Amino acid sequence: MEIIRAIGAMREVAGRARANGQRIGFVPTMGWLHEGHTSLIGLARECTDLVVVSIFVNPTQFGPEEDFERYPRDLERDAVLAREAGCDVLFVPDGGEMYPEGYATYVYVEGLSDLLCGERRPGHFRGVATVVAKLLNIVQPQCAVFGQKDAQQSVIIRRMVKDLDMDVEIVIGPTVREKNGVAVSSRNMYLSGDERVQASALYRSLVTAKKMIEAGERDVAAIVAAMRQMIESQPAARVDYISIVDSETLKEVTRLDGEVLIALAVWFGKARLIDNMVFTIENKKGKG
Amino acid sequence: MEIIRAIGAMREVAGRARANGQRIGFVPTMGWLHEGHTSLIGLARECTDLVVVSIFVNPTQFGPEEDFERYPRDLERDAVLAREAGCDVLFVPDGGEMYPEGYATYVYVEGLSDLLCGERRPGHFRGVATVVAKLLNIVQPQCAVFGQKDAQQSVIIRRMVKDLDMDVEIVIGPTVREKNGVAVSSRNMYLSGDERVQASALYRSLVTAKKMIEAGERDVAAIVAAMRQMIESQPAARVDYISIVDSETLKEVTRLDGEVLIALAVWFGKARLIDNMVFTIENKKGKG
């Protein structure tokens, strides 16, 4: 596995690979790799010849009060995990080269970026879209892999790639969970042992929603209320939002029909955890 | 010369050309081609193997009160001129395919987009940056050619390409002028015969600025005042702005030093004409 730091060098390796007819698969990350990331690297490995993983804690997607400074970083550890997972090139760009003096250009996906997490984290998805556009232009992959755990991010990246006519296939890998159901996330390292136990309520609330829907429940408010009660019974939990939205427009739905996303964000101490599930609901004719 | 209308077909032709080792040169236009455009096509011809010209009157760069509807369009005429100038592929995308339902993504170059023409035309340069990003992603040129007449656009596109790590060289072709000095522009067709004569004052005012600077004048206000007087002596002229700015940041300068851009916009009847000149001013040491 090669480690590349300069944008020009990364571009050259990618250009050479493409000229040789190799397919490039790309997994952008902020490092502190976990099983979620390694599963995405595995997916990239399956469908391409050269797997590039980037590690870049992107400053433009953090708010001024957020955890940019204390976000966990450990390149040595990440390099081992990436290599073992099947990474060929680890791209670790420098902040100064990514955002040099005079930097001024941002990519913004209107509407989608202002809902759910975007409403609570102004500018976050503008930073995400911008850095992903930059990385795709540098790495030139045929295929880029993102995790379903960041559902809103996936919807926004798909929209951006389609809208800006970027020639890359976006693949979404399933959420990887710990044994107790907690979605694996770099930010889980902020959790105390007790908080980690309590955090399993997020997954349980999504499973409860699933059961309610399967049993015929179609009342959005009733489902959200049941989920909220389940989560708030955990003393450390502070619900940021629980929303049932259209899986493409991310707008809140008033009735359950078609593909919906149940998404939530909950604070446990210093950690803001997110989780979600997608449901396809087919209502009987006449009712729908 | 081939005429292509579908994005997918254009992408395919470009991909095949690149796979065959051809260099693609690209000239994006809004049609109603004139000698300014054909000179840019000539420049693209010089340094590449396959010259693509796009014709697309881009709705997102027009304000609600602007001339999108009445902007001149004549594909048959344009096709002849493009072919004669050396165009290999004329790309004429459809508005519905460029901005389908649900379209949401915009590229914005902060700061630069809000000055000069951007101050008078809110959203204009957002539309320009967005459509150019899209076209570059579709046409995949190694080299794209823009005209110095649209000086602010050139600065913004250069900034965007650098910031978003787009792998394309931006070439700026010199302004082409009519015999009386008027910069050629599709919008000149809005001018009456008399207005066209009066419009030559724009170029004369820039030449006057040049002479003043060469004679040692360093007072920004004095140069602008002389230009304004010269232009306002034309009865049909209504000055929008005359500004002397840093050629890279586009911020107004208080003293003449280094590379400066003198840019102006003036209304003649229904036509808003722009023009500019770049000056490199070397002041003696001690004074600078």
Can you characterise this structure?
The structure is a homodimer of 288-residue chains. The mean pLDDT of chain A is 96. Chain A folds into 2 domains: 2-173, 3-Layer(aba) Sandwich (Rossmann fold); 186-281, 2-Layer Sandwich (Pantoate--beta-alanine Ligase, Chain: A,domain 2). In chain A, helix 8 packs antiparallel against helix 9 (220-232). In chain A, the strands form 2 sheets. Chain A has a 6-stranded parallel β-sheet with strand order 1-4-3-2-6-7, sandwiched between helices. In chain A, strands 8-9-10 form a 3-stranded antiparallel β-sheet, covered by helices on one side. The termini of chain A are far apart. Chain A contains 9 helices and 10 strands. Chain A is an alpha/beta fold and 288 residues long. The first copy, chain A, has helices at residues 7-19, 35-47, 75-85, 95-98, 117-120, 124-139, 151-163, 193-214, 220-232, and strands at residues 2-4, 24-29, 50-55, 89-91, 105-109, 143-147, 169-173, 237-246, 258-268, 271-281. The first copy, chain A, is globular, with a radius of gyration of 19 Å. Helices cover 38% and strands 23% of the residues of chain A. Chains A and B meet through strand 5, helix 6 and helix 7 of A and strand 5, helix 6 and helix 7 of B. Strand 5 of chain A pairs antiparallel with strand 5 (105-109) of chain B.
